[in-house]
Design goal:
about 280 residues; 10 helices
Length: about 280
């Protein structure tokens, strides 16, 4: 059963610029947790409905209500055009939360000079279930109250982590923002490996999914870290230990995942340079 969160946790008005996959997951979770849809406006050029009671507009309004929180949820390459239209509508009390990968806080401040409170956020897809991870970053120009309010808004989405150094934002994005896709690939590979050693494909897929889900829940509730849990499962000379020996040989799994995160990080840095 979805928990209903206190009304004061949500802003008086939430204006979403774009409502694609990630922003849509965030909004869906907030609505499930008690956000009044009448307090939400979504700018969507297609005009396609989002949810019952949520206003959808195809162009920018003449003004934003006082105390509006703006969620920038469009594609990062659209920031220049969005800023031209949106910046004149912002006031000093307009709060901006950006989920745009590769768009730095300095860039956002340059494009929205009137707005004092600007926070970068990097959520991942499980936010729609309230089981996501969202990394947050801002600077000293953002008020302590705004920091607290943005953290409270993000809390229903799952784990909230403030990042002290923006230089690490692409690394964090590679780990948690891109991580679900990497995990999905792992689950798929585990199922296909099961098929490769003789398990019927449909059974291998179900068993791989349930194994990952149950093991992740177990790890989340355990007092020990995943590395300790893995060794605890592996009896000396047993089947699990032999499998771990294959994974651990030459740190091959660690090397593969490090290369994966580094590739994602480097792409984020390239996007920032090209913004």
């Amino acid at each position: 059963m979805t928990q209903t969160w206190p009304d004061h946790l949500f802003p008086d008005h939430l204006f979403l610029v774009g409502c694609g996959n990630m922003a849509g997951q965030m909004l869906s979770r907030w609505l499930d947790c008690g956000l009044d849809p009448a307090r939400v406006t979504v700018l969507r050029p297609s005009g396609q409905p989002v949810a019952d009671g949520v206003a959808v507009v195809t162009d920018y309004p003449a003004a934003l209500p006082a105390g509006t929180t703006v969620l920038l949820g469009m594609k990062p390459y659209q920031i220049a055009d969005v800023a031209v239209a949106l910046a004149p509508l912002c006031a000093a009390d307009t709060r901006i939360v950006s989920i745009l990968a590769g768009t730095t806080l300095a860039d956002l401040r340059a494009r929205f000079p009137v707005a004092r409170d600007i926070v970068r956020a990097m959520p991942n897809l499980p936010v729609g279930l309230g089981e996501g991870v969202t990394a947050l970053f801002t600077d000293d120009a953002t008020s302590a109250q705004a920091r607290a309010d943005v953290a409270a808004l993000i809390q229903p989405l799952g784990l909230v982590e403030w990042i002290a150094d923006e230089a690490l934002f692409n690394q964090v994005t590679a780990l948690s923002g891109c991580g679900p896709a990497f995990l999905f690939r792992f689950v798929d590979a585990l199922a296909r490996a099961g098929e490769a050693i003789g398990i019927p494909a449909d059974q291998a897929a179900r068993m791989a999914m349930a194994t990952v889900q149950g093991s992740a829940n177990m790890a989340a509730r355990a007092n020990d870290g995943p590395g300790v849990l893995a060794d605890r499962v592996a009896s000396p000379g047993g089947m699990t230990r032999e499998g771990l020996n294959a994974l651990d040989a030459d740190d091959r799994l660690l090397a593969l995942l490090t290369d994966t995160l580094a590739a994602a990080r480097d792409r984020g840095e390239a996007m920032a340079r090209g913004a």
